[in-house]
Specification:
- It is a single chain.
- This protein is of the alpha+beta class.
- The protein has 5 domains: 128 residues, Agglutinin, subunit A, CATH 2.90.10; 137 residues, Bulb-type lectin domain (Agglutinin, subunit A, Orthogonal Prism); 123 residues, no CATH class; 89 residues, Phosphorylase Kinase, domain 1, CATH 3.30.200.20; 188 residues, Transferase(Phosphotransferase), domain 1.
- A 6-stranded mixed β-sheet has the order 36-40-41-39-38-37, with helices on both faces. A 5-stranded antiparallel β-sheet has the order 29-35-32-33-31.
- It is found in: Membrane.
- Belongs to the protein kinase superfamily. Ser/Thr protein kinase family.
- Its EC number is 2.7.11.1.
- This is Receptor-like serine/threonine-protein kinase.
């Protein structure tokens, strides 16, 4: 017993190694030093170069004064000073001669300043721990970023009583968001929903229940995150990882969806932990946020009228019921709005017959009910909601009926919920004309009331004449077809509309061409009124029918998306024959150029690009508010930014699916060599056509050669997919790898990626995995089974 206690004490001492508060002396930043927010990207680096301090440009918006991981392609931000007040170009962060450390705009107005208490600052330093410190001439820390965390903890950092993490608003908006992780002064460690945009808290959705005993959260260098008491006793482990910070980069972040995730990124190419290069989730809390949040106030995990469900990757997915659409397509947590006019309570209209129900199993919106009945049957519950103009949804479960009213909150879809939700929507045959009918009915009655008042003071003859004219006017207008005027703003699109002259000036008369396709040409441009931001302007050819279809498809699809691995659409121009799309500028061009025209890219860079493309496709297929089939995945349609982050582009031939659709029929689309076989077999098209194209692209990435190559000595090597399977079957992988020493060194990873690609290019669409599973296999969370011969598909006539 004594020996066991001694072991526990030694273990506690090992993981509670003290954190040094003495600043490193290497690469000290002297008084008077400064950095200007501009495109020069000047930074202050830590001694090893692993962390950088400087400005990150946030598009659109301005500059974020931040600290980030600097030695990996993903410049992941771990701390920021001005998250709620972005700095404009030309702003300066300066360590003044008197020791002040301030961020000022170009006019000298203060944006942010370090709160200094203690001796005079003599220098600053960016440490290899990710901590930025201001120190005295005795190396005593006067101020440090570790004491003012934003949403992230790093190894060597603690979260003390009274400190907290505040989630960002979204994946791309770093301002304070909807969730809080607080180490309270009473010792309790609590997750809260925030009364956004105010700072007060609403609901505690997870807590350690350590009031009176909790002291600080410790993230030590061994990869353990735990809650400790003041005397060092470990009260609760929040997370741990088998690799130490010397083997991997690590961070714990309260993400914008309210989940605290512990991320790990292997430091070395020959890491033996089995992880692919890239951030992977080690642990997360709470296990199911969808089921944890239940409050009388606030929208829940996903927003009003939406529902939250846990995806296969254990991330919360926010969805809208059938008949509803996102309030903000760029913010998946913004909630949902009905795409129809809710039932009127005007008894004279008698709209009961216009509405019906859509069923959703295992779905509920707790705390939105205002009536409860039992015991009743389902038909009774349906009719009760149908007859009640206040009822938006009825929940039927175990002979009980709950009526729900707008706005619906805390929506969740989970197998543990049980029962079914009966969502009242306008029937399909009534949706098209319900708006005009209701408005016209109300207008007609108003007209009759006003006219009737006038008639009472007139002669009988005039009264009859006016009444006849009035009835004719009303009937004529009700029967008269409505002429829809063309709109200058595309419906459902929340992006900027540019004039043709603006874009002509921005591109200097469409002077610098970046690339061209069958129906469009892309030009480089600069927006002078937005800090000279670089843009790419896609000008569609003046072939009316093709241009119109492509333009509408691309704007409709990509404007509904928001993901770091999709090229951001900034705006459009729609002036007659002039149809243009304005995108963020991608400085490293297309993946095709990167892969085939220059020297061979590094193996792990190619792996990262493959994972990024998979994440983008996974978003389009499963997480976007409207499921999108891209239809033309190929290296030319993947662009690379300044950090070689891959982003999918060119949605000109994409196909959108309605919420109730999983497949569609359409003419052959795509590019030769990447087109799935079902296009040629008159089969229904599903998201699996993108999976096939991704499989071909993955083969090109890992083998670093084109899918069809005629200039080879052996004709068996012309078609990469055929040759790849032969090499896999014959165990001659080194023929595919050729002289790629990095891939040879990592041959196990190469074989895994080859197997994934072979699964993706199966001729039978049902055998191909969906992109969520592909991503899980790439990230190593799912085993990759042995793939069959991709050509084994037979057609049954």
């Amino acid at each position: 017993m004594a020996f066991a206690i001694l072991c526990k004490i030694i273990f506690a001492l090992l993981i509670l190694l003290p954190i040094s508060t003495t600043a490193q002396t290497n690469l000290n930043i002297t008084l008077g030093s400064s950095i200007v927010a501009n495109r020069s990207n000047s930074t202050w680096l830590s001694p090893s170069g692993e962390f950088a301090f400087g400005f990150q440009q946030i598009v659109p918006g301005g500059y974020l004064l931040a600290i980030w991981f600097n030695n990996i392609p993903e410049r992941t931000i771990v701390w920021s000073a001005n998250r709620n007040n972005l700095a404009e170009e030309g702003s300066i962060i300066q360590l003044f001669q008197d020791g002040r450390f301030e961020l000022n705009d170009p006019r000298g107005q203060r944006i942010w300043a370090a709160n200094l208490v203690g001796p005079r600052v003599a220098y600053a330093a960016m440490l290899d721990t990710g901590n930025f410190v201001l120190a005295s001439n005795t190396s005593r820390v006067v101020w440090q970023s570790f004491d003012e965390p934003t949403d992230t903890l790093l190894p060597g950092q603690t979260l003390n009583q009274g400190q907290d993490l505040v989630a960002s608003f979204s994946e791309t908006n770093y301002s304070s968001g909807r969730f809080l992780f607080a180490m309270q002064t009473d010792g309790n460690l609590v997750f809260y929903t925030r009364n956004f945009p105010m700072n007060d808290n609403i609901f505690a959705y997870n807590a350690t229940q350590t009031v009176g005993s909790g002291y600080q959260v410790v993230f030590n260098q061994s990869g353990f995150i735990f809650l400790a008491a003041r005397n060092g006793t470990i009260l609760s482990f929040l997370s741990s990882d088998s690799t130490s910070s010397s083997q991997s980069y690590q961070r714990a972040i309260l993400e914008y969806d309210g989940v605290l995730r512990h991320y790990v990124y292997p430091r070395f190419a020959n890491s033996t932990n089995g992880r692919a290069m890239g951030w992977s989730v080690s642990n997360f809390l709470p296990s199911n946020i969808c089921m944890r949040i239940r409050s009388n106030n606030g929208p829940g995990a996903c927003g009003f009228n939406s529902f939250c469900s846990l995806g296969t990757d254990q991330r919360p997915n926010c969805g809208c019921p059938y008949g509803y659409s996102p309030v903000d397509p760029n913010d998946r947590m913004s909630g949902c709005k009905p795409s129809f006019i809710p039932q009127s309570c005007d008894r004279e209209l008698n709209e009961t017959g216009l509405f019906s129900f859509i069923e959703m199993l295992n779905t509920n919106w707790p705390d939105s009910d205002y009536d409860h009945f039992e015991p009743v049957n389902e038909d009774w519950c349906r009719q009760a909601c149908l007859d009640d103009c206040f009822c938006a949804v009825a929940i039927y479960r175990s002979s009980s009926c709950w009526k729900k009213k707008f706005p619906l909150s805390n929506g969740r879809l989970d197998s543990s919920v049980g029962g079914k939700a009966l969502i009242k929507i306008m029937s399909d045959n009534a949706t098209a004309n319900a708006t005009s009918c209701n408005q016209q009915n109300r207008k007609d009655r108003s007209t009759l009331i006003i006219a009737g008042s006038t008639l009472l003071g007139s002669s009988v003859f005039i009264n009859l004449l006016l009444l006849s004219s009035l009835l004719f006017f009303v009937c004529y207008n009700r029967r008269k077809p409505k002429i829809l005027q063309p709109s200058t703003v595309l419906p459902g699109v929340n992006i900027r509309s540019f004039s043709f002259i603006e874009l002509q000036e921005a591109t200097n008369g469409f002077k610098e061409e970046l690339g061209s396709g069958n129906c469009s040409t892309v030009y480089k441009g600069v927006l002078d009124n937005e800090n000279r931001k670089l843009i790419a302007v896609k000008k569609l050819g003046k072939i009316a029918e093709i241009a119109e279809v492509e333009f509408m498809a691309e704007v409709s699809s990509i404007s509904k998306t928001n993901h770091k691995n999709l090229v951001q659409l900034l705006g459009y121009c729609d002036e007659g024959q002039n149809k243009l799309l304005v995108y963020e500028f991608m400085s490293n061009g297309s993946l095709a150029s990167f892969l085939f025209e220059n020297s061979r890219p590094k193996w792990y860079t190619r792996v990262q690009i493959a994972c990024a493309i998979a994440r983008g496709l996974c978003y389009l297929h499963e997480e976007c508010s409207t499921q999108i089939i891209h239809c033309d995945i190929k290296p030319q349609n993947v662009l690379l930014d300044e950090s070689l982050i891959a982003k999918i582009s060119d949605f000109g031939i994409s196909k959108l699916l309605r919420p109730d659709q999983t497949r569609t029929t359409t003419c052959i689309r795509g590019t030769r060599g990447y087109v799935a076989p079902e296009w040629f077999r008159n089969m229904p098209i599903t998201v699996k056509v993108d999976v096939y194209s991704f499989g071909i692209l993955l083969l090109e990435l890992i083998c670093c050669r084109r899918s069809v190559q005629t200039d080879v000595e052996n004709e068996n090597e012309e078609i990469l997919s055929y040759w790849a399977y032969d090499c896999y079957k014959d165990r001659t992988l080194k023929l595919l790898v050729a002289d790629d020493e990095e891939a040879i060194y990592d041959i196990k990873q190469f074989e895994k990626l080859l197997m994934i690609s072979l699964w993706c290019i199966q001729e039978d669409p049902s055998l191909r995995p969906n992109m969520k599973r592909v991503l899980n296999m790439l990230e190593g969370s799912v085993e990759v089974p042995i793939p069959p011969n991709p050509e084994s598909f037979t057609i049954i006539s």
